[in-house]
Amino acid sequence: MKQFKFSILIIYLVSFVFAGTDGTIRGQVKDAEGSPLPGVQLFIPDLSMGAIADINGNYIILNLPVGSYDVKVMMIGYQTQTMKEVDVIMDQTVWLNFTMAIAAIEGDEVEVYGEKPLVEKGQTSRKITINSETIESLPIRDLNEIYALQSGVVRVQSRTHGIPDYEEKGLEEIHVRGGRSGEIAYMMDGMYLRNPIYNVIGNGTRLNLMALRQLDWQPGGFNAEYGDAMSAVSNLHTRSGGKSFQYGMRYETSGIGASLGSRYDELRGYDDISIGLGGPIWGLSKLTYWISGEYTNNASARVFEFDDKVYQTLPELQSDGSNYQEYMNILNQNKENLVQPWDTQEGFRGFGFRKTWDVFGKLTYKPTNKIRINASYWQVANHQKVFNPAFMYWDDGQTELFQDTYRGYLEYNQSVTSRTFFTVRATRFIQDRFLGVRWKDSDNDGRPDWYEWRHSAGPYGDTSDPYNPDMVPYSLSDNGDTLYYTMVDPRSG
Question: Under a CB-based contact definition with an 8 Å cutoff, are residues 90 and 63 in contact?
C-alpha cells in the first residue's frame, strides 16, 4: 500500500514539471429558445478532430495544436454554423458557445468570425499571448524587442552602454520588475532552455521570428506547473508546416549610402536576411515540414564619432635650429588638442564585427487523427568582436567570442479517448563557447586557440599536433586565402 502511494506521488509531481503546449476548445450549444441541444456535432476540418455535445449541450475538444482554425457545428434540422479564425492558445481554454436556428432551407449555412473575449474565464494569472500574425505587424527585429514592449520589462541596452561581451547574447538583457535576468524561465515547446554552467541561456534564445508561431508571456502569478522562475515565464511555440505551401522573406540593410542614410549607418554595415518556407512533402500527405533561417551581419559592432582633431607629425629638428619655431607650434597644437600619435582618424570610425547564423527545421507526422509526432532541430552560430579603442594596442583585450548552440527536440502525442491524451517529450540543449584572442596560441603548437576549438583533435584527424610539418602555412580564412601564423606582433616587430 505504501508503494502505491509513493508511485502516485511521483506521477503527480512529474506532471507539473513541463508546461502544456496545446490548447482546448469547449462550450455549450443551445437552440434559439435557449434549450440545450444534445448530439450536436462539432468539427475542425483542418485537424480532422471534433466532438459531440452531451445531454446538456456541453462539449470539449482537447489536445489541439496551437493555431487558427475554423470550427463547424452541424445537426440535422438546424442551420450549419462555422466559426472562422478561432485562435487556439497554448495551455489555455477557448470558450465557444453556439446558438443554432432551425434551418428554413436545406443546406443553409451561417458563417461568423471568432473574437477574443476581453476577460478570459478561469485565468488566474496575467498572461499575454502574441501570435505570428501580430509579430509580423510589429516594427521589431528580434525576440528582445517583443519583450521590451511589455509593461514592467527593462532591456539593458548593451550596445548603447558598451557593456563588453553582452552583444547579441540573447535574452539575458531582459529584466522584469527589477529582477535579475536569470530569474526568468524560458521554454520552447514546453521544454526549458537553460545553460546550467553559466546559469543563463545565452545566445541560444535568438530564435528567428519566422520560426515562431506563438509566444506566451506570464510576468507574474504563474501556476505551479512552471518551476524555477521568480520574475516571469516565457513559452515559445514553434511553427509547423500546414496543408498548403507557405513561404516568406525579409531583408534589411543599412548600406544605402551616406547621402541617403548617415555615415554611422554606412560604417555599421548592417545586413539581415530571413527566409522561411514549409508545407506538405510531395507524395507524403501526412508529413509536413517547416524550415526557416536568419543571417545577421554587422561589419562594425560599434561605431564611434571622433572629432576632427588629429595628431600632426612633428618635423625633425634641424641642427641649426631653423625650424625650431615650426616644431614648437606643432607640438603646442598637439598638446592643446589633447591628441596622441595614434589619433589619426577623424569623423566616424567602426570597431569590431558581429555575425550570427540561425537555422530552424521541424517535421510533423500525423499517421492518424489521434497521433502526432514532432521532431525539430535548431542551431545558432555566433561570432563577434566587441572592440574597444582602449584595447587598440593591447592584444589580450581584443577578445573574440565564438558561441554555438544546438537543440534537438522530439515529441510524441496521442489521444487515448475524447477526454484523455498524453505527451512524451525529449530534448537536448548544447552550448559551445570560446572567448579569447583569436590568433593566440596557448600551447605553442602552431594552431590558434580558436582553430583548435572549432576543429578539435580526434580519431578523424589531429589538427593540434605540434609535430605536424604542415602547420605553417595553413588555410584558415573564409575566402580560401593562405594565412601565415607567427608569434611576432606585427606592430612591434
Answer: no
